[in-house]
Amino acid sequence: MAAMDGDGMVPLAVLLRREMSWERIEKPDILYGEASESKKGEDFTLVKTECQRVPGQGDTTFSVFALFDGHNGAAAATYSKENLLNNVLSAIPSDLSRNEWIQALPRALVAGFVKTDKDFKKIASVSGTTVTFVIIDGWVVTVASVGDSRCILESAEGSVYFLSADHRLEANEEEVERITACGGEVGRMNVVGGAEFGPLRCWPGGLCLSRSIGDMDVGEFIVPIPHVKQVKLSNAGGRLVISSDGVWDALTAEKALSCSRGLPAEAAAIRIIKEAVQLKGLRDDTTCIVVDILPPEKISPSFPAFKRPGKGVFKNMFRRRSSESSLFSDRDYSEADMVEEIFEDGSPILAQRLDPEYPAFTMFKPFNCAVCQLEMKPGEGISVHAASSSKPGTINPWDGPFLCSTCQIKKEAMEGRHT
Ligand SMILES: [Zn+2]
């Protein structure tokens, strides 16, 4: 399990202390742009740059960027666009410090994704969507993902990081095993004569993905439990590229970054889409959001974004390593200027993702359903560990967190156990 003590990870509290001691309490500037070429009209984006952890307090602002690539209709994508952010935020306890809020995010993202999937089931059984959901708070970037849209990061130091998982059956043997064990059938299409072709798909339905929001008609073992990764950038910043598979089927991460390097965010997004469509044609909805996380403009903080010399800023940023690294010893450099991984977990098992060993566990309300936040009377909830496959022997079935009865049914359905 990932969390705070995993290999090579740095505890968040240490990072935030370090941030304070180095007087890095300033927030980065966030500049962004998006571009899209539509074929089926099933890609949707959500951009919110003025969210506040504490309503009315400007210094608690954070940003959200999300991409929803729908299939079999747009219903799941539009429903998620409208409801997912609220479902995530309402799963975060109130009155948290910034440190605690960031620690609580991974679990709240899991709860918000599952609640959105469960609620969507009430309005439609057909259609599903990938979700790539990015929250930026200061220099901390948290990405939750289901499906095969992707978020990549190029740090100002020039390293490239994948912040999302690939939940294509074709690319993920563990997920194929999980789905088969739950009763799903995974295989390729057959032509007459038995020759197989195309990617691995889950039947019935023929879905190529192992996780999504929606897709109730395929089976509940197509789970909405997101891969979550949390990193902290250095105060030199970096660039995020969030794109649907239309881009990644045509371009590698390196190609997408190199073809748009030096361009301001919006021009970069347009260039990436153009490059992808030129290479592969417009075979699918193709959407790209580019987000630049930049050192704050100290001279005129309210200077309009479109007048900023984006090109120059980037040129400097990406030269930083070669021109300045020699000034630092290796150790200083790695502490000061690397992207640091705070948290990562991609387990598809809900009980593991709501585990008491998780950061910020004690801050969640014990008598609210851990998924939908329904208030329950003591003794009414069902332990997430009841009859669960998670760590037998280490956790008692009367230990929390607890689920309401309908979320418990959802949990069992996701594990392939129907009641
Ligand atoms: Zn519930």
TrEMBL record:
GO terms for biological process: regulation of intracellular signal transduction. Its cofactor is Mn(2+); Mg(2+). It catalyses: O-phospho-L-threonyl-[protein] + H2O = L-threonyl-[protein] + phosphate; O-phospho-L-seryl-[protein] + H2O = L-seryl-[protein] + phosphate. Residues 24-293 form the PPM-type phosphatase domain. Keywords: Hydrolase, Magnesium, Manganese, Metal-binding, Protein phosphatase. Its EC number is 3.1.3.16. It is an enzyme of class 3 (hydrolase). GO terms for molecular function: metal ion binding; protein serine/threonine phosphatase activity. Pfam families: PP2C. Belongs to the PP2C family. This is protein-serine/threonine phosphatase. It comes from Musa acuminata subsp. malaccensis (Wild banana). The lineage of its organism: Eukaryota, Viridiplantae, Streptophyta, Embryophyta, Tracheophyta.
